[in-house]
Design a protein that fits this description.
This is SIR2 family anti-phage-associated protein. Pfam families: SIR2_2. InterPro entries: SIR2-like_antiphage-assoc. By secondary structure, this protein is of the alpha/beta class. The protein has two domains: 296 residues, 3-Layer(aba) Sandwich (Rossmann fold), CATH 3.40.50.1220; 80 residues, no CATH class. The chain has 15 helices and 13 strands. The strands form two sheets. A nine-stranded mixed beta sheet has the order 2-1-13-12-11-3-4-8-5, sandwiched between helices. The protein has a four-stranded antiparallel beta sheet with strand order 6-7-10-9. Strand 1 and strand 2 form a beta hairpin. It starts with a strand and ends with a helix. The relative contact order is 0.16.
Amino acid sequence: MAELFFQGGGEIERRDLESHLSSLCQLENVGILLGAGASKSAGGMVMKEIWLDFKARNEPKIPILRDKYKLIRQQEIEANSVNIELLIDEVLKNKNVIDTWQQDSTELQDLLVELYRSVTKAALLVDSDFPKLHVGEKEKFDKHKNLLEKLISNRQPGQAAPAIFTTNYDLAIEWSAEASGINLVNGFSGIHSRTFQPHSFDLGFRNVNAVGEARFGHYNMYLYKLHGSLTWYQDESGDVIECNSSKAYQDFINPLVGEGSFNDKQRLIYPGANKYHHTIGFVYGEMFRRFSEFLTKPQTTLFVNGYGFGDYHINRIILGALLNPSLHIVICYPELAELSANSQLENGLSPAQQCIDKIRKMQLNQVTIIGGSDAYFDNFVDLIPKPVLFPKNSAVNVIAEALNNLGSTSKGE
């Protein structure tokens, strides 16, 4: 796959891109938006693969969605381009209407459970190892750890900690940060009952023993999960709780993935119409508000990777934010070379492709687009400037091993 690098209206060389990325990492505010493609190398599924998983198990039920309720079109089915999140939303809306009429909604409930099942399988990443400790030490998360370490080590004294925005439900970022010894501020606070407290996003960590500029080093990152998480659930009082992976797997995930069991007492938060109601709506609304607020700050960089521009709300926020003259956006889009060719086809571009094409044709100097193989997550991480504070991907493990060996040597003397 050919490499393509565009800034503004023209193509740039790889050397210029690397220099540009280095400069962007030094701006006052640095964030990254990660989509499903960013977790694929760690075992995740992209939207097409989630649909294929659902379709393989529910082929006889497809006509219910297509013909009876007209929620998907034959063209989408044949192209395997069904957006699972939008489909969940529509199924849930139709089910709620039927329930209001006090009619039987069993067939939609069964389809909803199967959709939830596919979405959950796509986000597990490590299958039955999900509830285990130290999952982030697995090799498949090396690039995620490398990304976090690079972002935080490129921060200068007095600058804001990096911000991670993601549409993914998986725990790739949480596990990787834990393995690298990085504190994550994700909006939840508490020890035994971690409830959503948005003011925690306004807090940070500092070294109380440091003086001078060292006092303003960075010991944390901010994580905003725009579409929720596999470890979020809503308790009986309506509060949104973050539980550990062991409890989430035992109480919610395994019964669904393994047995297709799902009931009202399982309060794991999934995408769909319910995300805009009651307490859930407050949590999601706060996440999106913080995302919009971040993009309006002066001297800000947003890297976009693994996101296919299939979410209308996020696209509007990004396009609107381009009015901020000091915002710089770097978009990774592997299929960039195909846009021009597809635009000449009879069916034209998909809505997601139209958004990318629109951004490209705006020819703004504040937008850089990376196409080809370098746009994939693992290769993009390699493009980010080499860190100083974390000279090796496995720095934490190397130091821990050295300390253990030192202890063993002392005992042997």
